[in-house]
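Page 37, continued from 36.
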């Protein structure tokens, strides 16, 4: 017990040493926590005071968690669990340093160092188990997010969950894997917090008044349909989707043919809760067409293809809208290059995850992601919620006959 306490305390003390704060305080007479992003870490010191100051900061912040683990293991001869607790204590020391009012950084660099140490241990103990396609997908997602946003936080929330998923898929569940997942969860939280705090993903409502964020974020809940496809018969699934579709369709018909209801839902309550878009005043809403796209996918195509095109419809559209509107810089037909790249990347990423559980060849997933993005990009006079799943599903069904 004494060794455990010493190991954890040592980790905390190592973590509480903040080079960014100490160096700037000694040589510049300033508090790094009052400039830039207010974070006493590598990125802030590099932006605020230059690369030279960032080098020792990065080296120590990345290594102090690993140093704490190694001291606990090699010097104090603690168990592996206790050693990792010492490593996490180093991150806590970085976040809550005792000598500056317990107001430090976010601990991201320290935990990232532990994460890389985990990768080393996992590969050393179990061998390299990631397959070539895993690495290709990871690298492609990283490069795409760099091109689209050039924002560290958005790269993290796209790549870290994927890496965690692949490691859990390929490696046994050990203390290294569990701690890796804990770190990823925390870093994901930090990234999302920074995105909100520093407004890194902002869509100009003046430029895009018809954008409804809540409707976009609601799309992933439609994954209940692919899940249900494994639990119930095709007839029952189509009945469930059909009933929900019927409710939305009737609501649209009532709204379109009743001007008072239409005016209330489209315009009057806009400032309280924007339900329908202006362009939907005299037409069926995209929500209804989305459900119709899901219904037709399961009606027309075999299950694995239907699931794949619905995944493209859900996550491709979500990425294209949020990232395209926020970071779109280069026009491409009537969309943006960044939005289309986000669409393809999202389709490929989630399609690759689905590929682990279905019978579709990987080549078909890549073709499908490309076709879905192309259909979403081209100016068809058909709503994307219909054209993407139906056209993509039809083309995939055709190719499936030759490459299955």
């Amino acid at each position: 017990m004494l060794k455990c306490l010493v190991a954890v305390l040592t980790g905390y003390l190592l973590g509480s040493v903040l080079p960014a704060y100490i160096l700037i305080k000694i040589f510049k007479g300033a508090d790094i926590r009052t400039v830039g992003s207010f974070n006493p870490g590598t990125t802030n010191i590099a932006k605020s005071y230059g690369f030279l100051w960032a080098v020792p900061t990065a080296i120590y912040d990345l290594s102090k968690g690993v140093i704490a683990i190694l001291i606990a293991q090699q010097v104090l001869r603690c168990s592996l669990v206790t050693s990792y607790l010492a490593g996490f204590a180093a991150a806590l020391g970085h976040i809550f340093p005792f000598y500056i009012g317990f107001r430090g950084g976010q601990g991201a660099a320290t935990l990232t160092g532990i994460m890389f140490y985990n990768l080393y241990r996992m590969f050393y103990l179990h061998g390299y188990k990631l397959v070539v396609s895993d690495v290709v997908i990871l690298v492609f997602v990283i490069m795409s997010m760099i091109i689209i946003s050039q924002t560290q936080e958005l790269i993290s929330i796209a790549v870290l969950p994927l890496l965690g998923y692949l490691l859990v898929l390929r490696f046994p569940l050990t203390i290294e894997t569990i701690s890796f997942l804990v770190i990823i969860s925390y870093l994901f939280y930090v990234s999302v917090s920074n995105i909100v705090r520093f407004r890194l993903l902002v869509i100009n409502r003046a430029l895009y008044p018809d954008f409804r964020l809540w409707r976009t974020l609601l799309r992933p809940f439609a994954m209940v349909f692919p899940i249900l496809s494994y639990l119930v018969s095709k007839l029952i699934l189509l009945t469930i989707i059909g009933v929900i579709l019927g409710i939305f369709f009737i609501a649209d018909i009532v709204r379109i043919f009743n001007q008072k209801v239409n005016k209330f839902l489209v315009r009057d309550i806009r400032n309280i809760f924007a339900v329908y878009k202006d362009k939907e005043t005299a037409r069926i809403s995209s929500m209804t067409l989305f459900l119709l796209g899901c219904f037709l996918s399961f009606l027309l195509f075999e299950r694995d293809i239907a699931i794949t095109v619905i995944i493209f419809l859900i996550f491709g559209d979500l990425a294209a809208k949020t990232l395209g509107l926020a970071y779109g810089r280069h026009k491409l037909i009537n969309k943006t290059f960044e939005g289309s790249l986000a669409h393809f990347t999202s389709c490929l990423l989630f399609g690759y995850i689905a590929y682990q559980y279905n019978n579709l060849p990987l080549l078909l997933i890549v073709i499908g992601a490309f076709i879905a993005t192309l259909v979403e990009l081209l100016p068809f006079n058909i709503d994307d919620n219909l054209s993407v799943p139906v056209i993509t599903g039809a083309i995939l069904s055709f190719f499936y006959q030759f490459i299955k």
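The two ends are 59 Å apart (CA to CA). Flag for discussion at group meeting. DSSP finds 18 helices and two strands in the chain.
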